[in-house]
Design brief:
Distance between the termini: 59 Å
Order of helices and strands: HEE
Shape: flat
Helix content: 10-25%
Strand content: under 5%
Length: 109
């Protein structure tokens, strides 16, 4: 590609970036649009007490389920006995140079 074509592509990319930034700034900072609505006057409703709603009642013969008492029987086992712990002993290999770099490493089990 020629130098002129590369310059044209770079300018086009920069202009696209500036346009995107300007669009984002406008959408974030634009004033909110508040729609005006016509609100009608509230109407007063007339309440009538001609009908009082009674809560539902249960029939006289309600079926009951009777369950026998349960008894849960369990045993507690003693906690397991672990052998006494011994101090941790590290077994390390001698120091050796790294395969890449200028340091050394020691591998321990």
């Amino acid at each position: 590609m020629t130098k002129g074509r590369l310059t044209t592509i770079a300018i086009a990319l920069w202009l696209g970036g500036f346009a995107g930034t300007a669009a984002l700034a406008y959408s974030v900072n634009r004033p909110l649009y508040i729609a005006t609505m016509h609100v009608a006057e509230p109407e007063v409703a007339q309440a009538t007490l001609s009908e009082i709603v009674q809560p539902p009642t249960l029939p006289e013969q309600t079926a009951l389920i009777v369950l026998p008492a349960l008894e849960i029987i369990g045993t507690v086992s003693p906690p397991p006995v672990h052998p006494p712990t011994r101090p941790h002993v590290m077994r390390c290999h001698p120091w050796r140079p790294l395969e890449q770099g200028s340091n050394s490493v020691q591998i321990c089990d």
